[in-house]
Specification:
Structural class: mainly alpha
Order of helices and strands: HHH
Radius of gyration: 30 Å
Shape: elongated
Strand content: under 5%
Helix content: 55-70%
Number of helices: 3
Number of strands: 0
Oligomer: single chain
């Protein structure tokens, strides 16, 4: 619950700052469409929250190593009968043309 409240107040503060900056720029003659600062404020608030909370440290930083052993690539590869059948099929010659 506290993470959600942190996200909400950070997005509100960042959006308010973006809108105030847009109003200040409008006073100087530079007019921006309202959805742009609102979207940028929401994005900045969410980024601020993510940097504050951080990523879950329990996640591995690297992808697991690939198992390239052909015998264990598929579940049926562990069955000796299936491997013998595969060898027979692979070694069979085409007789019909």
């Amino acid at each position: 619950m506290s993470d959600l409240l942190g996200l909400i107040w950070r997005t509100v503060v960042a959006t308010a700052a973006a809108v105030l900056l847009t109003l200040a720029l409008a006073l100087m003659g530079l007019v921006l469409p309202p959805p742009l600062p609102i979207a940028l404020g929401l994005l900045a608030g969410a980024a601020w929250w993510f940097l504050h909370v951080g990523a879950d440290r329990a996640e591995p930083s690297r992808a697991p190593r690939l198992d390239l052993d052909a015998d264990y690539a598929l579940p049926h590869a562990q069955d000796v009968r299936v491997r013998r059948l595969e060898d027979l099929i692979h070694g069979a010659r085409r007789t019909a043309a």
